[in-house]
Specification:
This protein is of the alpha/beta class and 334 residues long. It has helices spanning 2-34, 79-83, 99-102, 112-125, 140-149, 171-179, 184-204, 216-220, 227-238, 240-257, 275-278, 300-317, 328-333; strands at 39-45, 48-55, 62-66, 88-92, 131-136, 154-160, 261-266, 288-292. Strands 1-2-4-3-5-6-7-8 form an 8-stranded mixed β-sheet, sandwiched between helices. Helix 2 (79-83) links the parallel strand 3 and strand 4.
C-alpha cells in the first residue's frame, strides 16, 4: 500500500511538473509575442557578408522570408513580430548584404541562380534543414530554385504577388520579361519607372494610405546607387530572359509536388480580378487564396491580415508546428 501511494505521489509530481513547464513555455511565448526582439545579424557566406534579420525562438520551426528586388528587408519589419510568437523568422537582406563589394559584376555576372547559390549556402551555414518558405514578388526567381534543388526541405509554401503566369500579367510587366534580352537599357529604365509608378499609385489611390511609411521607398532603391550596383541590377534584369523560360518548369514542379500553399495577393485596384493569384489554382487546386484590396508592398493593415492568415494556415498545415492548440490566443490578438 505504501508503495502504491509513493508511485501515485511520484506520477502526480511528474504531471504537475509537466503542466508547470507547459505554462512556463506558454508564458515565454506570450512574452515573446508581446515584445519580440528583432535582431540584425550577419554571417560571411562564401566570402559575402550576408545580412539578415531574425526574430523568435530558434528552437521553433523556421519561416524564411524572401523579399523581391529592389525592395529590402524593411518589407517585413511589421510582419515579423506578428509571426515570431510561434516561429523562428529569418529575413535575409539582398540589398544590405555587400554583394557588389564582394562579387564584381564585371567578372561574375549577377543572376538569380547565383543568388540562389548563396541563399542555399546561407541556409546550410544556419543549419536550417526544414522551413516554411515565404516568397514576395520577384523573390520567386530565387525561391522556386530552392524548392527545385531541395523540395524535401520545404514544409509549406507562401507566395505573395509572385508572378509565375505570364498571361496573367499586365502588358507592361509582360514587356519587361519579353524584352529584357533585346534592350536591357530600356528594360532597366522601364522597370524603375514601373515600380515608381506603382508606388505613386498606392499613395494616390482611394485606399487609406495613413499606414504607409512613404520614406521606405527611398530605402528600396538603395540597391541601385553605385555603378556596380546598377550593373548588377541590369544583369538581374537581363536574366529574366532565362527566368521566363523556366516558368513552365516551375509550374510543372508545383503541379507534381503539390506543396501546401497559401497565395497572398495585394492589388490597388478595387475592381481587379486577381488573375495572377488565381492562376496558381491551375497547378495547385488545393491552394488557399488571400486576396487583399491593398498594394503589393506591405503596410500595417496589410500585414495584420497577412499574419493572421499565415498563422491560421500553418496551424492547419505545418507538420513541424508544436502545440497547435495554443495558437488561438495569438490569432485573437491579431
Amino acid at each position: 500500500m505504501n508503495l502504491t501511494r509513493l508511485l501515485i505521489l511520484f506520477f502526480t509530481l511528474i504531471l504537475a511538473s509537466c503542466d508547470y513547464s507547459n505554462k512556463e513555455a506558454r508564458h515565454m511565448n506570450s512574452k515573446f509575442y508581446k515584445e519580440p526582439e528583432i535582431k540584425l545579424q550577419h554571417r560571411r557566406v562564401n566570402g559575402v557578408p550576408f545580412y539578415y534579420r531574425t526574430a523568435g525562438n530558434a528552437l521553433n520551426p523556421t519561416l524564411l522570408l524572401l523579399h523581391g528586388f529592389p525592395t529590402n528587408r524593411n518589407t517585413f519589419d511589421e510582419l515579423m513580430p506578428m509571426l515570431a510568437s510561434h516561429y523562428h523568422v529569418i529575413a535575409p537582406d539582398n540589398t544590405d548584404s555587400d554583394w557588389t563589394n564582394s562579387i564584381d559584376p564585371r567578372k561574375t555576372p549577377f543572376t538569380f541562380s547565383l543568388i540562389a547559390d548563396y541563399m542555399e549556402a546561407f541556409l546550410k551555414e544556419m543549419e536550417i534543414d526544414t522551413y516554411t518558405l515565404y516568397i514576395q514578388n520577384s523573390a520567386f526567381n530565387v525561391g522556386f530554385q530552392l524548392i527545385e534543388r531541395s523540395p524535401a526541405k520545404i514544409d509549406a509554401l507562401i507566395v505573395q504577388n509572385a508572378e509565375l503566369y505570364i498571361d496573367a500579367l499586365p502588358e507592361k510587366r509582360q514587356a519587361l520579361y519579353k524584352n529584357a534580352d533585346s534592350d536591357s537599357s530600356n528594360a532597366h529604365l522601364d522597370y524603375l519607372w514601373t515600380i515608381s509608378g506603382e508606388n505613386d499609385e498606392v499613395h494616390s489611390n482611394t485606399i487609406d494610405t495613413s499606414n504607409y511609411t512613404i520614406g521606405d521607398w527611398q530605402d528600396h532603391l538603395h540597391f541601385v546607387q553605385t555603378e556596380k550596383q546598377k550593373l548588377a541590377m541590369m544583369q538581374l534584369l537581363e536574366d529574366y530572359k532565362t527566368i521566363i523560360q523556366r516558368f513552365p518548369e516551375w509550374q510543372e514542379m508545383l503541379n507534381e509536388k503539390q506543396p501546401k500553399t497559401l497565395v497572398i495577393w495585394g492589388e490597388e485596384d478595387a475592381n481587379t480580378n486577381f488573375e495572377g493569384a488565381k492562376s496558381y489554382l491551375k497547378d495547385l487546386p488545393e491552394a488557399e487564396l488571400l486576396l487583399i484590396n491593398s498594394g503589393k508592398f506591405s503596410n500595417k493593415m496589410f500585414n495584420v491580415e497577412v499574419a493572421s492568415k499565415i498563422l491560421n494556415f500553418l496551424q492547419r498545415h505545418s507538420s513541424h508546428l508544436h502545440n497547435k492548440e495554443n495558437m488561438k490566443p495569438y490569432l485573437d490578438a491579431l
